[in-house]
Amino acid sequence: CVCVCRGLGPCSGRSMLAWLVGAAQVVGVACVVLSGVWMGHYRGGFAWDGSAHQFNLHPLCMVLGLVFLYGDAVLVYRVFPNEQRRSVKLLHAGIHLLALVISIVGMVAVFDFHRAQKIPDMYSLHSWCGMTTFILFCLQWVMGLGFFLFPGASSWLRAWYLPLHVFWGVALLALAVGSSLLGITEKLLFSIMSSYPLFDQEGVLANGLGLLLLAFGLLVGFVLSREEFRRPPHPEEEALSVHFKTLTEGGSPCTP
């Protein structure tokens, strides 16, 4: 068959998508690796003993869960346009669940570390933004599960919630990247404040991690924003679109 994407030549849209998704994967893996190197090499490694080594699990888990895996989860509908929708839904929800579990480990690690070291919780802008992102992510996952994966929600409710689900899917990735950048800056100022202005190796590595996180977010956001990369309409989606139009423009289900 020949695939023709709007505004592009035959198959060029899928080829461009493959390159963009591949670049996002390379950048995302680099983010996780740099987080591991930073916490493992420069900050002394990992443990679960209430020490600073336990804190090191927090940035690694949050980058892996709330950024990299979350970004991959929102890309699955672009990467698998022709597979059965139910299978793609399960993959989407499954990657989100894995991201959620890893993020919970990261959250427990930092709160347990604070408790062991008698450090106050939730006083910084990073902690406020990070907790807001984490709570919204949990709500997004639960709502998506209830509305789209399990039967029970009416088509009217799904039509009402679908645009919100799509919006928060993109917004949460931006919030996760932003919270990570705040966390990187906070950690550097706490750990190497005196040598940070001198282009300390640890500071340069952490700054590079921040740029890679930003690049990952931009790559995923660009893919999600392009109409030619969208999954072909499914009968269920077309029905939801009709219902949403009826809801927003007036009328009733019986109106022709």
From TrEMBL:
InterPro entries (UniProt xref): CYB561/CYBRD1-like (IPR043205), Cyt_b561/ferric_Rdtase_TM (IPR006593)
Record field: transmembrane: 16-37, 57-78, 90-111, 131-150, 162-184, 204-224
Topological relation to the membrane, as annotated: Multi-pass membrane protein
Places the protein is found: Cytoplasmic vesicle, Secretory vesicle, Chromaffin granule membrane
Domain Cytochrome b561: 23-225
Keywords: Cytoplasmic vesicle, Electron transport, Heme, Iron, Membrane, Metal-binding, Translocase, Transmembrane, Transmembrane helix, Transport
Pfam family, one: Cytochrom_B561
Reactions catalysed according to its record: Fe(3+)(out) + L-ascorbate(in) = monodehydro-L-ascorbate radical(in) + Fe(2+)(out) + H(+); monodehydro-L-ascorbate radical(out) + L-ascorbate(in) = monodehydro-L-ascorbate radical(in) + L-ascorbate(out)
Subunit: Homodimer.
Free-text function comment from the UniProt entry: Transmembrane reductase that uses ascorbate as an electron donor in the cytoplasm and transfers electrons across membranes to reduce monodehydro-L-ascorbate radical in the lumen of secretory vesicles. It is therefore involved the regeneration and homeostasis within secretory vesicles of ascorbate which in turn provides reducing equivalents needed to support the activity of intravesicular enzymes.
Protein name: Transmembrane ascorbate-dependent reductase CYB561
Organism: Myripristis murdjan
Gene: CYB561
